[in-house]
Amino acid sequence: QVQLAESGGGSVQAGGSLRLSCAASGYFDTMHCMAWFRQAPGKEREGVAVISSDGTTRYAVSVKGRFTISKDNVKKSLVLDMNSLKPEDTAMYYCAAVAGGLCLLWRDAYNYWGQGTQVTVSS
Length: 123
Description:
The chain is mainly β. It is built from no helices and eleven strands. It has strands at about 1-5, 10-15, 20-25, 35-40, 45-50, 55-60, 65-70, 75-80, 90-100, 110-115, 115-120. Strands 2, 4, 5, 6, 9, 10 and 11 form a seven-stranded mixed beta sheet that branches. Strands 1-3-8-7 form a four-stranded antiparallel beta sheet, with no helix packed on it. It is globular.
């Protein structure tokens, strides 16, 4: 069992930056895929970025070049560095994990989820 808890959300103006963290307790080292998803009101939950156990990363086209996903293996946490934020980035951001798979940005592949942290970007 892995427990995930996001932090770092808040309000920021367009063009600003935020760092989201996801603290993991339990079997952090057994999670092959760790990902960030987001969901805006009235929209589907969509994949933002994912990192596999070998360090391979994937990003949604909408955030590529602006966001960076990484893992801190000392703190046992997942990190999302968000730069050049846009109003369309406004959403609840969730971290997710799964022990195996292809590490694609498909929400049904992940069975561990955090409660989410809100990110609001004003124009």
